[in-house]
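@channel anyone free to eyeball this complex?
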Amino acid sequence: MATQPTAATVHQEPTSFWRRYIFSMDHKVIAIQYMITAGLMGIIGLVMSWLMRMPLTWPGESIPIAAKIFPGLFEGGVLRPDAYLAMMTMHGTLMVFFFLTAILLGGFGNLLIPLQCGARDMAFPFVNMLSYWVFLLSCLIMLASLFVTGGAAAAGWTAYPPLSAVAAAVPGSGLGQTLWLIAMAVFIVSSVMGGLNYITTVLNLRTQGMSMMRLPLTVWALFVAAIIGLLAFPALFAGAVLLLLDRHLGTSFYLDHIVVGGQHLAREGGNPLLWQHLFWFLGHPEVYILILPPMGIVSEIIANNARKPIFAYRAMVYSIIAIGFLSFIVWGHHMFVSGMNIWLSAAFTLTTLIIAVPSAVKTFNWLGTLWRGKLRFPTPMLFAIGFVSTFVTGGLTGIFLGNPTIDIQLHDTYFVVAHFHIVMATSAVFGVFAGVYYWFPKMFGRLMSERLGKLHFWLTFLGMYGIFFPMHYLGFMGMPRRYYGFGLLQYLAPDTQAIQLFITISAFITGAAQLLFLYNLVWSLWRGKRAEANPWQANTLEWQAPSPPPHGNWGEHMPVVYRWAYDYSVPGASQDFIPQTVPLEQEPTGEHRRAAVAAPELSGNGEAHRNGG
Amino acid sequence: MRATVVIPKEIRGIDGGRFRGDGGGRGAEGGGPLMPTAQLFVWLLIVGVGMLFAALSSAAIVRIGLDGQTLRFPPIVWGNTAVLLLSSLVLGLAQWHVGRQGMFQPSSLRLFGGAVGCGLLFLLGQLGAWYELIQQGILLTSSSAAAFFYVLTAAHGVHVLGGIVALSALWINRRRGAVVRRWLGPVATYWHFLTLVWFALLAILQLR
Amino acid sequence: MQAGSVHGVLFAVAVLVLVGIGVVTIGDQWWWLPPVASIHGATIDALFTVTLVVTGIVFILVHLLLAYFVWRYRARSPQQQAYFYLENRPLEVVYTLVPALTLTSLIAVGTRAWFRIHSSPPAEAMPVRVIGEQFAWRFQYPGADGTLGRFHPRFISEENPFGLDPEDPASHDDIITTELHVPLNRPVVAYINSKDVLHSFFVPALRVKQDAVPGMTTRFWFIPTQTGTYDIPCAELCGQGHYIMRGQMVVESNAAFEAWLAQQPTFSTMVGLSH
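replying in thread with the prediction:
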């Protein structure tokens, strides 16, 4: 271990355009490919949500502009009900899997794991490249389903059979649903390939001195998220295979004898609940795949901009692990009213509410980090503290839904829509934005515009609350989700339409604010202020490499790590940050338990340094 | 060895040694990686594949239990089982030889080829089992036990096919000592895992 | 970097305003649950309120702390020093245990209520079958013999669109309706089935929700406490017409209920059984 690879042993940088930017095996290029592809999928998903708002806000009214742009979805200027269901299904699918999962694990996982562990690349660069191309293939299949006869899948992102199993049950349940299932299976293959790489790299390729308990929380979160994905995704793969067989080869895994459209479907003994179990065995861990990496990103950014060590690093690590473990035994809380055994429901209640504990601990630790800090507010920090607010709001509503008794009333109402959009569409997306603003200089060597970034933050922060907070009210009133219109429901208060209008206006403003972000991205690529290697004065390894890092990341010498990632404002240090590569002889460290040994001169500072002994 | 070879061989990549990244392993804990990267990769792959079979088998256990009827295996299934077990044993023997000799010698190469051959024979035999079932009129739609038999044998067969591809890739690289040393162990681990899975599936499909 | 500190102040103000809006609109019940019309519904509402108070306190406290810290500790001068502070074990233990205990109590009361709601229905409960189909609800009453006839989609035909077993004697006197009428203050046990895809039997005013699952019979029992007409929206995506799948439930006096039921034709007259 004593020796380090020299430049001569590092494989030559590819020189042709194709090998360098298209079929690249460099984790940084693959990260950018993932981010661009996932971002495009996110934009498509966003447009779909706008289309969905139209019939909800202006029922039956003609919207000629939208009808002109999407003639296939509109009839007489009005979005058709089947198109509404297709948009709803594809919006959920694209946002959860093809935008958030892909950008967090494929994008940030690829970018940060090798850089923050101190590796030259992923363990298996070829598999890594393959993972991206398979992901792209799954995107293309999923998008192709929008253009087939009958339209895209319309059974919801949860694809519950029999709706998703019988072509006659809903227009999108034809070829669209088949392509949906195939695209998901291909996506799972891609994410397993990615996950194998991330886990292997974290375990085996950390640089000298980088012990697990010195890893930045971003890597911990991505690592646990990758493990969750590896364990959970195969269940959906199994479920999808069985559903394809039910659809096309006449088996009865999910189907019993039913009558759809006057036609008898002679199947025996299947049960739709089997799909729900398989789906949510993935589906619930999946939402932790989406929230853990943003938690890691936010921890990193809050510590950096508070100029303080993250509060209770070890508690943070343990709570990430606890969340990862518990996420596997909570899936049944999606099935409280499904007819599942009531004792099982009670068991799932227990696990579900327990998983709130590590989440609460993390929140308090972020507050502890802000306390007595020296807070700077660049755009990434604004999104990070915005995350703390929205995560608390969205997390607390989960306590209602995790309680099966209350869930009887709230299940499948807009309360649920509000809950998971504040966690996933707001908190997780804030994590993505925070991460992009923070690591953009590392990826491209230029800083993003702060002026545009702050405007983007304020519009998005207020806009997201404007969209999703009022949905709680709709949920209180018992408004069911996945409805094309509410004209028949008399129990709803007459002013729900005003709330719908408010939500839609907020949605358009928030959506338009994302154009600012896109403009900022493009503008900053060419015009942004040049970034030095470490523009945020951060400790983690990636900031010790040039911006952007060269092929192989570290030049001639591998970095050697002497300390943890959170030596901010250590008393007695020459500046308020100490990169992980600075030897202990040069600067003191606050790293837990090592402090007394490594920096005896700190012992006089007992007041400021509680853990010196 | 590490003092002279800068990138430890066992953590070079799958892409034919063009691997560029090397963090050196377990950080401050010292002592190098817990296990070679290729071996770790395969263990993780086994975890993922294992979850796939776990999901399918738990569905099978519940459903076949509810329906209360099991499938009488065509007799060829027992022959296939013996062939698969044999392939694992022969591969283990080949591993042991390579471990002692440092790389493939003609004797271990013959054993290795025998293991691959047994694997192919197993797949053919499984197709034969399907053929026998179809002859008896037992189709995918006949019963839940039949449906799960087809699904589980197909899922297992596809993974065995993957194992054969990996073994064949090793065969092609049989003269490249570094590749053999790095990958023979991991690929064999995967192969033995599939043999174990097969025994588990046999038991599950006979549960009542 | 101090230049950005105005955003800390702005953030604190924004958070306070948002919390204020939340507290006023929810605390003052601007938009609220429909008035409750069942006995177990009152339990659900009580739990809802308790949970709302508990989470509301946490929501307000955490946001106040967040706003205060962001405002108070924003970087104002280059001399300002962040306080190097690693962790505080006692505090961490407290803020692990307090949520854990609070959640455990919520679980305890929630689960107790859950088992009560899903307990066996009282013997005198009136059985009624709820049958979901794309995109309507039908209701089957047991008739004079007090027993619901067998239902299975395989019995569905052009003459018998309801799916009752014509061979089952219990089904002959059964009554099938498109509206659900139930007597006031009498337990009703709904057996829920589906002809085609998943549906969910949702009566917001009665706090009733239970999926209709093809191949299974699910059950939910309740005691209506308010007369009136209530919507029964479908709460599980069931196809293109999901949003128009709405039934109606009428809670009325026992006499009115009996009178209404007596007017409904029986299954055997509807499908022309010769028995």
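from a first look: The beta strands of chain C are 126-133, 136-141, 175-177, 180-183, 188-194, 199-203, 208-212, 218-222, 228-233, 246-252.
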